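Q: I have 357 residues here and want to know how they pack in 3D. Can you give me a structure?
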Amino acid sequence: MARSALVPTALVVTFVALMCAGTLTTVGRSAVTEAQVAQRMDGAGSRVVVIHDARNGELITPTVVDQTNRLSVTERAVGISQAFDVTHHTLGAGGPRVPAWQVTGELRHVAELAAGRWPSPGESLISTAAQEALGMDHPIGTVQAPATRSTLLETTYPVVGSFTPRAPFEDYTAGVLIAADPAEITDSLHVVATSASAAPSAQSLALALLAPPSLDAVTVQSPLSLAALQAEVAGDLTMFSRTLLLAVLGVGALLVAVVVFADVLVRRNDLGRRRALGATRTTIVLLVVSRTAIPALLGAAVGTLAGVLITQRLHAAPPGDFTAGTALLAILAAIISSVPPALYAAFRDPVRILRTP
């Protein structure tokens, strides 16, 4: 039947192929764009919550840092002190200065080791920029902090390696990171949530662990507004993709239904003879649906291949599961759209069809 009616077969193949190719080049690109936007907005910089001890009330203890780091909504958490200047030990206080920070918790959460070894408490890692500023040929030596009213004497920190900062700690690329003493109380708590949507929970739980005595005892830098924006953008893109998908499949299914209905009308005498010779209504329905499914499979293969080639040229190829799902939806849409014409053909009276004037 499919070979004997080449025009309806070719039309079904064409419409299903257009459904697949159109879905991949429109909805598929939209899905890729949605994933890219979510990935960019869900970067480490949009997931970091910074809590400062505004009154120096010794709230951010190593225990609090460790407990925050163990939260299920936390990817990593560290305590970082306020910046202070350090100089090369051999040049003394008159030499060039670079910023330094003491890190409470795992230093691996802030930086990646570029050379040397991880420091023990009281030792430090230096960035390439700070190494050049201090005139150090290698990340080995000693830096010192100038005397203050509290210390009275210079404090020295052995340099045991170099580092490159991890996101979102790129601001520390110009200085020195010092492994703090295990009992050191720090000034700020940096919490990187597992996702932008988890940032509100991470912030609430971190504040609960800190238990500040008053609201003005801490200040919070939070990405909550960015997380809300991400949810809105993702929702808008998802709604647009769904609407576009339904439109493409709906139009394609309607065209297939028109072609199948026209084919049923043209072949009504053949179908009527089959009914008169004993074919059941179920047989007629299966015959018409199968007659549509075979070219639909061919059209899905052609359209999927064309859509993949086009999206690859545009550098926006959707993932494999989306591509397979698109082909399956197009075939199902074609099969479902052929059911009403099939039922129409199955329930017509064969006597009236075959009656001659």
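Q: Anything worth noting?
A: Residues 224-266 form the longest helix (43 residues). Residues 6-39+230-354 form one domain.
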